[in-house]
Design goal:
Shape: elongated
Protein name: Putative ABC transport system permease protein
Helix content: 40-55%
Organism: Rhodovulum imhoffii
Number of strands: 21
Subcellular location: Cell membrane
Keywords: Cell membrane, Membrane, Transmembrane, Transmembrane helix
Radius of gyration: 34 Å
Pfam families: FtsX, MacB_PCD
Number of domains: 4
Distance between the termini: 38 Å
Strand order of the largest sheet: 2-3-8-5-7-6
Length: about 850
């Protein structure tokens, strides 16, 4: 092998320009651009979150307490540390006449906000808007109740005045997901409302302004000095953790969808290289005749393809860098967090690495097969085709590149399991599509010779073309089929999630979820609900909220990691006897007369995930006091019903003396819901009734945005498939030109020739769509079953669109490159072939 000679050959070949490589460049550039753009938006959001962390959080640090205020010693420590702002956050019902709506209340002091600015309409100072019993609320809540500034409304047993519409809440993104629109008032204005009573579900957040503090050291000091108070610490290093996790996971998923797009583009790259090398058969044979070694020829074309791949990657990086900057205002307007759009080198480097590995993976195989081209190809056309497998070294190298690409995805996305399963899914889909292409090719060839099709010349011509040598069946089915598979999987997942929310859950879910029922109100509440017309079922339970701090004497997070049960406070209940609808899966329930140390029943699935065993101890901090309970049983808890479900249940003696409230679920006929809610709100102004249908609608909105983002990524994959489809159709134009000339010579008319071209395209599209249904449906089932842990139902609506879309796309691409062969004169074409 002589590198200098190989370089000279490559340089001379490149003088011919980019002819035959436009699809190669488009496929590679599109895949790289998609990954670069997703990574750039992710880094822009993360940079914005980091820069504005204190504003999003509402302070440099935040200490959160569950339904209690800070003690004098806790408050003194915080005031000695920096400026303090106290925020009380809870849900309640707002009443205007006979109309009621759920709202998320933020009661603030005079120091709020420590950072950022509250936007009001009409513009005024927040201090003036909240003076006396003044309040501000989001426009959606005001519109729902028909309120304008100056109008009055009620919260609990007190009256308030709407001073202005809340247009901007600086710390909104740091507060997490809320079931109701926001309302802000002064904490002292809640006196006399009856809303903050012992046991009421509320959180108190103490924001600290300490711009130059050592936050890690301060966190350690707080968790040590204020230990036992059940506090939760957050600081500006991660002001909106929920948003950060969401962005990271969505970006990881979209990068994997982008990799599917690169895989589709890789099929096009491979097809383009294979077609190019077939045109260079005579050149390669000539070089071998003149004494060039196979290694020299391989290196020459590897250099050439490498230069072109580099050009495609650079184009993709440029597009991926420019798109977020161009669409920056639109992206920023749709996100509830600050976004700092700029050029970020890291995602561009990631996308470049993906592009390089993909280009090598899909070009090495066809390049390696050039070794099989013999010098005799100059004299015998039949020997010019480089078929068969390349040498084992190249097969191993190809496998190594595939493993490297998956490893890179696992490293960059931070989700190795997801990356491996996604790679396995893509490989499985490609395998199915390859088998489908082979089956279509052989089946078409057999049917074309079947005597039963005599008298159907158009169909036989189409089948003969599909089953003949040198066709584009494999490229079309692989590229289009993989793109449609991703789209089909997204469609099935989205349809199943929406179906679960719109149909399955409401069949089992209650009408209302009621919280903050005081113990002395429980008997009257039950009687009023059970005697109300249209009510079919009522469930109640005592409820406290606590934070799991330790497991078997060790810090809980050190034992079980970042499990969702440990991320915040969780509902805790108590019961002397086992409820009739509870199924214990392991262990035994305590006796009704148990008066010993606290014991606990834990949700079975969550216990398994946390690694709990019978006899383990769990410390739960409730109202600033740690309660150590021994796990005596595990029970089945189905949270998907939206009914009453607690991770932890204890014996009454452990909790009964603590201030607490009761919760209830009410199952009622739809026509009875409004009257029941009015009656309960009038009788018990302090309670909060959450309509389950409204909560599910909020979840549906979030899922809709997620599905839209994923569908966009799938659309990029489909666009890459369309590029390959166009490339395959364009590559076959020369063959169709000759075929049309021969058919016309033997008596075929233009409509017959056109119909045969259209039919072959539709057959290939239908095959790609059919396999996409199988692969996409399987992927949808796997995600719903193993990731979402839900049920799966095949939805035929999107499936029909997938098959029809695949057939239509190939039909249009085929017809788009059929007009020139149809218009060519047979004599001119045949004379050129002689």
């Amino acid at each position: 092998m002589t590198p200098r000679i190989a370089f000279r050959i490559a340089r001379r070949e490149l003088r011919g320009g980019l002819r035959g490589f436009y699809i190669f460049l488009a496929c590679l550039a599109l895949g790289v651009a998609a990954i670069a753009a997703v990574g750039s938006v992710r880094d822009s959001i993360q940079t914005g979150l980091k820069r504005e962390g204190a504003v999003l959080l509402g302070g440099d640090a935040e200490v959160t307490l569950t339904y209690r205020f800070a003690t004098l010693s806790e408050r003194a420590w915080m005031e000695a540390t920096g400026e303090v702002s106290e925020v009380v956050d809870f849900r309640s019902m707002i009443t205007v006449g006979q109309d009621r709506a759920l709202t998320q209340i933020k009661a603030v002091d005079g120091a709020y906000p420590l950072y950022g600015r509250v936007g009001l309409d009409p513009a005024m100072a927040l201090e003036d808007a909240l003076s006396g019993n003044g309040a501000v609320m989001e426009r959606v809540l005001a519109d729902r109740l028909g309120l304008r500034p100056g109008d009055a409304f009620r919260l609990g047993t007190a009256s308030y005045t709407l001073s202005a519409i809340l247009t901007r809440e600086p710390d909104a993104a740091g507060g997490g997901f809320g079931l109701g629109p926001r309302l802000i008032l002064r904490t002292e204005a809640l006196e006399g409302s009856g809303l903050l009573q012992p046991g009421t579900l509320f959180e108190t957040k103490y924001r600290l302004a300490i711009p130059d503090a050592d936050l890690p050291a301060l966190q350690a000091e707080a968790e040590t000095g204020l230990a036992g108070g059940g506090l939760r610490w957050r600081d500006a290093r991660n002001g909106a953790p929920g948003m950060t996790v969401f962005v990271d996971r969505l970006a990881a998923f979209l990068v994997l969808v982008g990799l599917a797009g690169l895989a589709v583009g890789g099929v096009g790259v491979s097809a383009a290289v294979r077609a190019y090398l077939e045109r260079k058969t005579q050149v390669i044979a000539t070089l071998k005749t003149l004494g060039a070694e196979s290694g020299t020829i391989l290196l020459a074309y590897l250099i050439q393809i490498g230069v072109l791949a580099g050009l495609g990657i650079v184009l993709g990086l440029a597009l991926g860098a420019v798109l977020p900057l161009t669409l920056g205002p639109a992206i920023t307007a749709r996100l509830p967090v600050p976004v700092e759009m700029a050029l970020h080198p890291a995602p561009l480097m990631e996308a470049a690495a993906y592009g390089v590995l993909t280009a090598l993976l899909f070009t090495l195989w066809p390049l390696a097969r050039t070794e099989r081209i013999r010098a005799a190809a100059l004299f015998r056309e039949v020997s010019g085709k480089a078929g068969g497998w390349p040498r084992p070294a190249y097969v191993i190298a190809t496998g190594g590149l595939a493993v490297g690409l998956v490893g890179l995805a696992a490293l960059f996305t931070g989700a190795p399991r997801l990356a491996i399963w996604a790679a396995a899914g893509i490989a499985g889909a490609l395998g199915l599509l390859a088998l489908a292409a082979l089956a279509l090719h052989r089946g078409a060839r057999w049917l074309a010779r079947w005597h039963g099709l005599r008298g159907h010349p158009v169909l036989r011509l189409a089948l003969g073309a599909v089953g003949g040598p040198g066709g584009e069946v494999t490229s079309v089915v692989l590229s289009l089929g993989l793109g449609l598979s991703v789209l089909a999987a997204v469609g099935q997942i989205d349809a199943n999630l929406r179906s679960a929310i719109a149909q399955d859950i409401p069949k089992r879910a209650p009408s209302y979820f009621v919280v903050d029922i005081q113990p002395d109100q429980l008997r009257g509440f039950k009687a009023r609900v059970q005697n109300a017309p249209g009510v079919t079922r009522l469930q109640t339970a005592p409820m406290l909220r606590g934070i799991i701090t330790r497991i078997n004497g060790q810090p809980a997070r050190a034992v079980a990691g970042d499990h969702w049960v440990l991320r915040g406070d969780r509902g805790v209940t108590y019961s002397a006897r086992k409820p009739p609808d509870v199924r214990v899966t392991e262990g035994v329930w305590w006796s009704e007369t148990h008066d010993g140390p606290p014991v606990m029943s834990f949700a079975a699935e969550e216990a398994r995930e946390l690694g709990l065993k019978l006899g383990d101890t769990v410390d739960v901090n409730i109202l600033g006091r740690d309660i150590t309970a021994t796990v005596t049983s595990f029970r089945e808890v189905d949270f998907s019903t939206a009914g009453i479900g607690f991770v932890m249940s204890m014996n009454p003696g452990a909790l009964q003396g603590a201030p607490h409230t009761h919760i209830a679920t009410i199952y009622a006929q739809p026509q009875a819901e409004a009257a029941l809610l009015r009656d309960l709100a009038n009788a018990y102004p302090n309670i909060t009734a959450i309509r389950v249908r409204d909560a599910l609608d909020r979840v549906g909105e979030v899922l809709g945005g997620l599905a839209a983002a994923i569908s966009l990524g799938a659309g990029i994959t489909l666009a890459a498939g369309a590029m390959v489809l166009i490339g395959a159709a364009a590559a076959g134009e020369r063959a169709r030109l000759y075929e049309a000339a021969v058919l016309k010579t033997v008596g075929a008319v233009r409509p017959q020739v056109l119909a045969s071209f259209a039919l072959r395209s539709a057959l290939m599209g239908a095959a790609a769509g059919g396999v996409a249904l199988l692969a996409g449906g399987g992927a949808g089932w796997a995600v719903m079953t193993f990731v979402m842990e839900g049920s799966f139902t095949f939805h035929p609506g999107s499936a029909v669109l997938i098959v029809g879309g695949g057939a239509l796309a190939t039909l249009l691409a085929g017809l788009g490159f059929a007009w020139r062969p149809l218009a060519a004169r047979p004599a001119t074409v045949l004379r050129a072939q002689s």
